[in-house]
Amino acid sequence: MARTVPIHFVLVAALMLVAGCAVGPDYVKPVPVAPDAYKEMLGWKVAQPKDDVLRGAWWEIYSDPQLNALEEQVNISNQNVAAAEAQFRQARALVQQARAAYFPTVTIGAGVTRSQRSATFGANPLQSVGAAFNDFTLPLDVTWQADVWGRIRRTVESNQASAQASAGDLENARLSMQAELAQDYFQLRTLDAQKQILNETVVALTKSLELTKNRYAGGVASKADVLQAETLLKTTQAQAIDVGVQRAQLEHAIAVLIGRPPALVTIPGAPIMAVPPPLPIGVPSELLERRPDIAAAERRVAAANAQIGVAEAAYYPTLTLTASAGLESSSLSKWLTWPSRFWSVGPSVSQIVYDGGLRRAQTQQALAAYDVSIATYRQTVLTAFQGVEDNLATLRILEEEAKVQDEAVKASQQSLAVIMNQYKAGIVNYLNVITAQTTALTNQVTAIQILGRRMTANALLVQALGGGWYAADLPSTEEVTHPKRQGRIESTPVSASSPSRP
């Protein structure tokens, strides 16, 4: 005799057949156009060994202990980095929030109600018509929405990609703050060197003024020579004092970058001594794996792609399974007894038949957001290529300029020595000396400014190359989904005075 298959078994079997599907397009990583080589690489000195230069604390390539100490404080106390780290933790929590929809919602409660039925209703077998009665309830309700069409899966997938993008933002914020500090530091050291040159020039001009005064007292030089010597001396002293304005501002900027009030930070003066070290450039295609901002933009494309599936899932029916059980009685003494038990269980299917175009608009919005993320990703890649090319060109051109400028410094110093001897011998007037001194000072200042620009461009090139970061450093979906099991990106303490958390 044939046996009838219960309807709930048929339903479960049907669910198992469709449970593996998820509507919406599967993600395909976009492939941007990358050139075969950098345009500005001609004549570039490749670092050796190139694999060991940009890893970890990249600023150590400059061999400056003061810079090293400041950069380490960026990781600890910079508030932009702290905010980015908190945003990453927030994005990671959203993954947990989305995954919670996989599981049923269970609620339990207790209630006591006293009510009276209307006398116009039919008589209740257990209650007299119009009489007040008590209702003691202790229900346990379970609700579970089956992820038949993959709406929850796509939401989790989107949030996982968003959390990975947030991790990329954190690394990009950290790299940006580190590079900004290096730039400010090199500019500050350039000003220190400039002030040193000006102070040395002031000493030389003071001696020149004394010489001119002595010659004037001996009737050899004119009063105009003395006044010109005094004017140049005072002008140079004013320039040396003026350097302090920008230096103070840079010192304050560095203090903020390391998360401290400017009043508590003092950086001793020291002239810039470093020279730009060679860097491992690699090929353009490698840049796509070395920039955290590119990785973050790519993960946002994946998140936007998953949101298309979320929007399309709204076109399909929703299956909800509900169950309820508990104790209910009109008498407090019988409330917690076995005969007071009740239960119910059953599925429900709902389908939107008219929404005024809401689902269509939401799908179109998701598709447009995906197109935005694609364009943003490609623009980020183009901007990254531009940053590398800009700083390669800057370093190459400034290196050539530095060689010529160094020759100009030597020539101006030799010219000053010759003209000074001629002036002492009475062959030329003091205007020639003034011109030679001004030219020598200008060339020295220009040379040190070029060195500072080269160091700044070198730090910017490190930033443009990703600072030694690689896409493999991005946390996996498992790590952003189960942070306690897989660990977490190191939290950045805000400050010693941060309020404790419960």
How would you briefly describe this protein structure?
The protein is 57% helix and 9% strand. It has helices at 7-18, 65-77, 79-99, 151-217, 223-257, 284-287, 292-313, 358-424, 430-464, 477-481, 483-486, and strands spanning 105-108, 111-116, 132-145, 318-329, 341-350. Strands 1, 2, 3, 4 and 5 form a 5-stranded antiparallel beta sheet that branches.
How would you characterize the overall build of this protein?
The chain is of the alpha+beta class and 502 residues long. The chain has a single domain (30-103, 161-316, 357-486), classed as Outer membrane efflux proteins (OEP). Helices cover 57% and strands 9% of the residues. It is built from 11 helices and 5 strands, in the order αααβββααααββαααα. The chain has helices at residues 7-18, 65-77, 79-99, 151-217, 223-257, 284-287, 292-313, 358-424, 430-464, 477-481, 483-486; strands at 105-108, 111-116, 132-145, 318-329, 341-350. Strands 1, 2, 3, 4 and 5 form a 5-stranded antiparallel β-sheet that branches. The longest helix has 67 residues, at 151-217. It is elongated.
